[in-house]
Amino acid sequence: MASHEMLTIQGLGVSFDGFKAVDDLNFIVDRNELRVVIGPNGAGKTTLLDLICGKTKSTSGSIMFKTMDLTQMKEHAIVRAGVGRKFQTPSIYENLTVSENLEVSFPRGRTAFGALFFRRTADVAERVKNVAEEVMLNEKLDQQAALLSHGQKQWLEIGMLLMQDPELLMLDEPVAGMTVNEREQTAELLNRISKNRSVIVIEHDMEFVRKIAHKVTVLHQGKVIAEGSMDKVTADPRVIEVYLGH
Amino acid sequence: MNLLTKKLSKTDLIGVVVLSAIILVFFPSVFSIFRLNLIGKYLTYAFVGVSLVLLWGNGGILSLGQGVFFGLGGYCMAMFLKLEASDPIATKIQTTPGIPDFMDWNQITKLPLFWMPFKSLTFTILAILVIPAFFAFIIGVAMFKRRVGGVYFAIITQAVALILSVLIVGQQGLTGGINGITDLKTMHGWDIRSDSAKYILYYVNGTLLIGCVVFTRWVLSTKFGMLLLALREKEDRVRFSGYDVANFKTLAFCMSAVMCAIGGAMFTLQVGFMSPSFVGITPSIEMVIYTAVGGRMSVVGAVFGTLLVNFAKTFFSEEYPDLWLFLMGATFIGVVLLFPDGLAGLYERFGRPFVARMLRRSPSSRKKDEPTVAVAAALESGGKHG
Amino acid sequence: MSLNEIGSMVAMQGFSGLSLFTVLLLMALGLAIIFGQMGVINMAHGEFMAIGAYVVYLFSQLTQNFAPGLREVYFVPAVVAAFFVAAAVGYVVEVLLIRRLYKRPLDTLLATWGLSLAMQQFFRSFINPKEVSAELPEWLLGAFNPTPSIQVPRNGIFVMGLTILVTGGVYVLMLKSRWGIRIRATTQNRVMSSAVGINTDRVDRFTFALGCGIAGLAGAAFTTIGSTGPTSGSLYIVDTFLVVVFGGAANLIGTIASAFSIAQAQSLLEFFLTSAMAKVLTLLTIIIILMIRPQGLFTTKVRT
């Protein structure tokens, strides 16, 4: 694996009762790259993220993250290694406040006893403030998370991941349900945070994809059918046939 | 330090103070020693109630086998006390003096090996704390690491309770069987049956209970407590934030086990016996209702819930015995359908505004706002240094 | 002991294991439908069994007091009535209670425990606080001897026959009939089922009532073996749950296999140990196996 590669997937496959959700997939993401994965529903995009973060076990192939084989690791170990995953529906702690949500994601006090004796020292509070600013929630620190707007909940979840300072960030449809304005802000946010980490985004909104993507991968029926810059991919006849247009 | 006071809001502190006042001051001054001993018994059940606030109310883990840990603690203490009551002089009429009477009746001639360490009080106390925690650890690791949760876990805890109670009843010679271990007299020479002893034991019990209440409140205020609440709703999110969820659940389970065990040991001391009727399925599920009635997320509520249910049980069993089980059944259903937040919920809705209005109507000043501000400030500063 | 005698003992021991198997299976079938198919924990399942037993007892009392001549024929109608009474009560319970708790399994557990307490008290207050027995017809009493040294109790045969009938009935219902398809569709995908016109509410009520009705049948069958008291239902509830969970909850064959192995294991152990220790060991083994394989021993497919 070359030193500029963050994530190298080779021959990855998983089948559910005979149905191949992901089929002999090869996929490489470089450092500081923002890769967008698009494709029709059922193409295997979410399954790909599930496989990387350990939610689903693959039946073949390897997933190398830096020098570690993620297929051999448990979910929480993968997270601690530096992989953060945002789920499709906002997965935040509704009954805690924004700052509590962020604080709970601080990567210290991760063991049971560690969490028991965790102290909210100055660096924690500092980090919470910085991240909240980053995700545009610094005005809402004491607000109960359940009361945030849908878009703000998405930002909160991104913020919770940023607290962990992951080297690979994976976002599943981050702008689903957001207003046009919120999408603008999210695009800026993603461009900011990809400056020193790798990001994989699954999205359907082509406008949004164009604003953020360094490179685009198109999945269909569990396989990669096209990969390249946005222009190259949108002009590819196979992609047009299968996904984009009529 | 600031984490502690932020979470232990002034309401919590007031709640603990009021509870302490009621248990340590009000009850002893109002009730006779006989009734006080009864209340002391109920308060030992409250240990289980508090443990379930941590485990079930916050962690979402329903254990229908807390009686197992209550019983383990109780039996350890009972074994110690029984050995003391079975010294060779007191038992000289037995076929084999120096061993508990029920062993003699079962033709056992030598003290079984596992009874011997319980001659020492130090060992006994250690056993009360360590054995249930160890048990809970084994069960927790086996279940939670395999992602067995929810209903399956509840059923398995029931099965464990059943196994332990059948085992105890079946091994009459070793455990006293269905009658349990009775006729307990002294603890290091101190007669636990005397009135003065009962007073002292009541206060010890009350203090330990309040200690558990404060401990649980503290745990819930830490990051651990926040994560427990988080994994109740969104276990996946917690796991994908880098936490090994199984460890958190197991630690909570072990903590709750130790609390139940302390309750069990205090029960043995105050009531003077321990039997398998506290270990099985029915008592374990009954203990859940104490927490449910009190408000499963409220530690102080759990204590009041325990007292309320037990007062009601005693009253109805005496006056209208046929009605009691109907009432109990209705309570289970009612608490689930109508009052999920129990007494604590009722207090939040009706009691707190009432108290707030009382505080606002504080006398003396024409300026109506001042007393409120002064009172609030006093409470605030009381909280910060608490 | 002669070979003949040993053979007879083995046969009778095997038969007692089979007896226990049919008892567990009858109880587990009803619960497998309710828990396995619907995911509802009914802690009052044992009390529905008791309903069935009490219905048979009441028929027996009526016959004794008003129509002693019907003693030989009252039993079968009584068993049928047991099914319908238990099912009817189950229907009402589903509508009033279970329906409101569908997304909350732990709360359902607690609420149905409360229901079981109330039902036990009902039996105690309105039927009899003490254990009662139905007066069995002649053809159910005694044993018949296929060989001079083997004695096969008639009530055991009756229970077995009933179990085969019920199991076959459930199999046909679930796997071959239209209702069965509706039940399975609703459990697997409620939204889609209701979108294609299946009245999921009715299916739920029917399924729950069916499970309770089968429990009633089990209770009726037990009147041939022992007496019934207010707490009889709670005697076997934990075993029944373990049988269902052990068998993988969601499939019929698994339940059958699970009941069989547990029954055989327990009766075999009873041969060597006291019945208390046999029960402890069996339960312990089941739990340990469940810890190793939480999905049960007899599941065929693991869903992702």
Folded structure, characterized:
- The complex is a heterotrimer of chains A (246), B (386) and C (304).
- Chain A folds into two domains: 1-82 and 168-246, Rossmann fold, CATH 3.40.50; 93-165, no CATH class.
- Helix content of chain A is 37%, strand content 26%.
- Chain A has helices at 45-53, 75-81, 98-104, 112-116, 122-134, 150-163, 180-193, 206-212, 230-235, 237-244, and strands at 5-16, 19-30, 34-38, 60-65, 68-69, 83-86, 168-172, 198-202, 215-220, 223-228.
- Chain A has a six-stranded mixed β-sheet, with helices on both faces. In chain A, strands 2-1-4-5 form a four-stranded antiparallel β-sheet, with helices on one face.
- Chain A is globular and about 55 Å long.
- The mean pLDDT of chain A is 87.
- Chain B has 386 residues and is mainly alpha-helical.
- Helix content of chain B is 74%, strand content 1%.
- The model of chain B is unreliable at 1-7 and 364-386 (pLDDT under 50).
- Chain C is built from twelve helices and two strands; from the N terminus they run ααααββαααααααα.
